[in-house]
Amino acid sequence: MKDTRNQILDAAKRVITQKGFHGSTMEDIAKAAGVAKGTSYLYFKSKIELYLAVMEREFDYITSCFEEIIKSRIPVLKKIEGIISFFIEYMKENRDFVFSLMYEPPLIKMNKDVIHKRYRNKIDNIRHKFIEVLEEGIRRGDIIKEDPEVLADVIFGAIVRPVIQFVIRKKTGDIDSLKFKIMNILTKGIVRKGG
Fold this sequence. Notes:
Number of domains: 2
CATH architecture of the largest domain: Orthogonal Bundle
Number of strands: 0
């Protein structure tokens, strides 16, 4: 039963990536999953419900990967680098999927509402864990003594915005060089020595 559900979710992700949310139908998704259309309705009452389930599964995957990095016994800077690497890899592998879900105009408002209503606790939990990592780094003297909440927001902003922009613009350059640039700015700052 769980395998069939995941089959449908996998198919939905593929079909939505290819056709967009509005261009895909439950019939397309069922066909891609290798199940009858009626079977897909046993698991999901509507395309919106299926879409939300795909989003939730992706969000849970990202959350669990972030938590794994944050809980690992490596230095703070390596954790930050790990988060950047994971995020870049995820975006690279799922570029068209993310683009089709996040930037299909009719879905933008719904995405914002869904994220705030359904995922706010998950987002807050990850942020809290990351703040704890930064507090540990401050105590050990690995990073600057600054408000860890502000640091967390600055670091996440420095990671998310450039990578998302890369996806939106569908740039063809080397996304891996983005990791180096972000880490370089985070670790060295923006002020020139002796400047």
